[in-house]
Amino acid sequence: MGSVSLKIGDGTARFKRASLCSSAVNILMIFCVITTNLFALYAFTSSSSSKNNTSNVIHNKNISLVSEQVSLILREIDLSQKKLAQMEKQLLGYERFDLSRPNIANELKIFLQRHQLPLGKDSRTGITEMVSSVGHSCEKNSDLLSQFMSYKLSGTCPDDWSLAQKLILRGCEPLPRRRCFSKTVSKLGFFPFPVSLWKPLGNNTFNWSGLNCKSFECLKGKKLSRDCVNCFDLVSGGNENQRFLKGKSKNDFLIDDVLGLGNGGIRVGFDIGGGSGSFAARMFDRNVTVITNTLNVDAPFSEFIAARGLFPIYLSLDHRFPFYDNVFDLIHASNALDVGGGKVEKLEFLMFDIDRVLRAGGLFWLDNFFCDSEEKKQTLTRLIERFGYKKLKWVVGEKVDSFGSGKPVVVLSAVLQKPVRPG
After folding, report:
1. Inter-axis angle of helices 56-92 and 23-51, nearest 10
2. CA–CA separation, 109 vs 117, rounded Å?
3. How far is the C-alpha of 64 from the C-alpha of 74, rounded, in Å?
């Protein structure tokens, strides 16, 4: 019993709150049960023992009865605890880490240890102990996680970022912290900001381990996703250099047109699945700060964005956005919203989190979302309509799916304004 501390989330620690059903209360209840049974047993045997106070046989029998009764109570308590643990597992949908298993890395055991507050319960927050935070799916990948946590203390970390990303993509997020030094790569040759936004970068300033390509020459012409076709080519006049400035179809909205819909109130934005960071670069030219969400799937996206002088954030879209409510003026997203493998609930969770971090009056820019079927388009349309956003721009057209089928596919582009909702 007691409060359940869910080790899921976007922070580096979680706290267990004291409650009326805390372990102290449980111990008191157990003590009361045992005491009550002992008194009952004493009352039951006292009359017979009073007849012959000197009888050692009766005295020993009474002690034996007490011992049996206590053993029975302890067995019942143990059985109840096992039943509660099973119920908790069914309610939460996952198992807790069994740190007694022999294949668990020692560093993982140390990281997951609970730490009691030295002065007891905190009067302001009500917490009694600190609990480290790891994703609940880490339990299902404990072998990989132990491999990730196996390293020399205060030494150089293994070059295993691809293993970390594999764990993240399996829902093991956030990952535990480590006590080792990450591999460093020389960052010489960077251009000063803002020249760095559109200057080609050298191969030697990036970590190519775990990737099929080992250079930007290899990445040229590669279709890494629908939103990143040759997106690492920053050469003047190229496709990436012209994105958001010149449109090839009616679905390609221009940055200046969208910013005009914000009436001068666009200052900070969030780009979901932002490729190589070109959206953030164009926004900087217009005095808008944009954070770009990305993972290093088949290319060093995060390092590339940072090398341009922009701000990448490394997390999957299964992770709750690590931002406070109502902080962004603009959120830009494209085919990164294509999550869940057809599961509507998966998209709903993502859309509600987008709505949470977008301020009232802020703009949600849906940019060339590929609708492979009429059902997908209708599903997304119905979901958007549930939020009550004002449709400032709404364009349905066709584009050739160069990343997938190679055939024309329906695409949806929209600029939506979040309403002010009553409290």
Report:
1. 160
2. 19
3. 15
State which residues form the domain around 113: 1-184
- Token match 């132990």: residue? 146
CA atoms within 13 A of residue 207's CA, in its CB half-sphere? 14
Is the dihedral angle over the CA atoms 99, 105, 106, 108 positive or is it negative?
Answer: negative
Q: Give the pLDDT confidence of 257-316 residue by residue, as tens digits.
A: 999 998 889 999 999 998 999 999 999 999 999 999 999 999 999 999 999 999 999 999
Spatial distance between the Cα atoms of 271 and 223, rounded to a whole number of angstroms: 20
- Domain termination site, one of 146, 165, 184: 184
How far is 223 from 275, CA to CA, in rounded Å? 11
- Tell me, what CATH number does 221's domain have? 3.40.50.150
Task: Look at residues 367, 363, 417 and name the one whose alpha carbon lies nearest to residue 391.
Answer: 417
For 97-123, write each residue's pLDDT tens digit: 667 777 788 888 888 877 787 777 777
Residue 216 within a domain: yes
Strand, helix or coil for residue 272: strand
Residue 273: exposure state from Cβ atoms within 10 A (0-12, 13-18, ≥19): buried
Q: How far is CA 138 from the centre of its chain?
A: 12
Same domain, 207 and 175: no
- How far apart are alpha carbons 104 and 176 in whole angstroms? 13
| Statement to judge: residues 277 and 160 lie in one domain | no
**Residue 292 lies inside a defined structural domain of this protein:** yes
Q: Are residues 175 and 199 in the same domain?
A: no
